[in-house]
Design brief:
The chain is α+β, with helices and mostly antiparallel strands. Helix content is 56%, strand content 19%. Its EC number is 4.2.1.134.
């Protein structure tokens, strides 16, 4: 004997949901012909294990394709031929006795419209986030590429000049390399903004210390004193800075592409161990050499109130700066060491 199962229904503007109360359904046959849905299956329904069937003639045309899933119950999804809200499901005004609203999925027309707008909002938000992520990745890639090219140009030119001119190249480094170094270090200020506004996930204080410290050495100590332009210490400062950066920036470039080169990764997290302290030492030598020049030229002297009637030499500021320089060395060295330890510890865990 063929029985009729209990069928729950709900609708959206573009589809109809039918939930047939049959568990462990087998031999499911669903067809849509002439706008009539025919269903037949065997399973456990209200009358136990039997063969169940029903038919529904829809109010408006539907597409013949039916999506079905057999989980705890049989779920059918029927696509409407035209988008719209139906006042009832079937062509006949009187609702079949086996058909009942699916209150788990039931929405009125206004709620369904809100659901559509929510989906549109989520899709738009996802699209916008993808666009923003793409623009951010492109910006970071181009920034790191420009910095890599700039520091590579400095490193290669200084190396070539050292081999060609020998010790003489130590005395004209500032005049030959300062323009590109000025450009790269001014551009490096972007890294502080990236860290401050969350464009990249990195600590703000170590980034700020490194960028401000380098710019202080470049613009105040070396750039403002013509007497420092011919000092060999300029060569060592520029060479150590560029040596570190030619490994750091390509590492970040590959990171923008979700790519890793193991050799480059090891160099990025290892080369700084000897070079960073040497760079700070070269910067300290430049500061010490500039102190008598500032005393002699009286440049950047700090005026005191007229009651005292004198001014303080900028060299006192440099003595204090030397203390903070080595404090910054400790902070940044500790930060970089933690980064290195975390990086290689994570890689070991993945390998295991």
């Amino acid at each position: 004997m063929t029985l009729t199962p209990l069928v729950h229904w709900a609708q959206r503007h573009e589809e109809i949901f039918l939930r047939v109360e049959l568990t462990d359904a087998q031999n499911i046959d669903v067809q849509v012909q002439d706008n009539v849905l025919q269903f037949r299956a065997q399973g456990y329904g209200a009358k136990g294990l039997h063969e169940y069937e029903f038919s529904l003639e829809f109010l408006f045309p539907v597409k013949p394709q039916v999506h079905k899933s057999t989980q705890r119950q049989v779920n059918l999804t029927v696509q409407k031929e035209r988008r719209g809200w139906w006042e009832r499901l079937t062509l006949q005004e009187r609702r079949p006795v086996f058909l009942t609203p699916d209150f788990d999925r039931w929405l009125d027309e206004s709620d369904a419209e809100m659901e559509i707008w929510e989906k549109v909002r989520i899709n738009n938000s996802f699209y916008v986030s993808r666009v923003v992520f793409g623009l951010k990745t492109a910006f970071l890639f181009m920034y790191n590429l420009v910095q890599f090219l700039g520091f590579s140009w400095i490193f290669v030119n200084m190396t070539v000049r050292l081999f060609i001119f020998g010790r003489d190249s130590l005395y004209d480094t500032f005049h030959t390399m300062s323009d590109i170094m000025f450009f790269c270090q001014i551009l490096a200020s972007v890294e502080v903004l990236n860290a401050a506004f969350g464009v990249v996930r990195t600590a703000l204080i170590p980034t700020f210390i490194q960028v401000i410290g380098r710019n202080f050495i470049l613009f105040i100590i070396l750039g403002s004193l013509e007497e420092m332009h011919h000092r060999p210490v300029v060569f060592f400062v520029f060479y150590l800075w560029s040596t570190i950066e030619i490994f750091r920036y390509p590492f970040y470039m590959l990171g923008c592409c979700n790519t890793e080169w193991k050799t480059l990764t090891w160099l990025r997290y290892t080369v700084w161990i000897p070079l960073y302290p040497l760079g700070v030492l070269a910067e300290a030598v430049a500061v010490i050499q500039s102190i008598p020049i500032f005393d002699e030229t009286r440049l950047f002297r700090i005026p005191l109130p007229k009651v005292i009637g004198t001014s303080v030499s900028f060299s006192y500021v440099l003595h204090v700066y030397l203390i903070f320089m080595f404090l910054g060395l400790f902070i940044n060295f500790r930060h970089l060491y933690k980064q290195r330890k975390k990086r290689f510890r994570t890689k070991k865990r993945k390998a295991n």
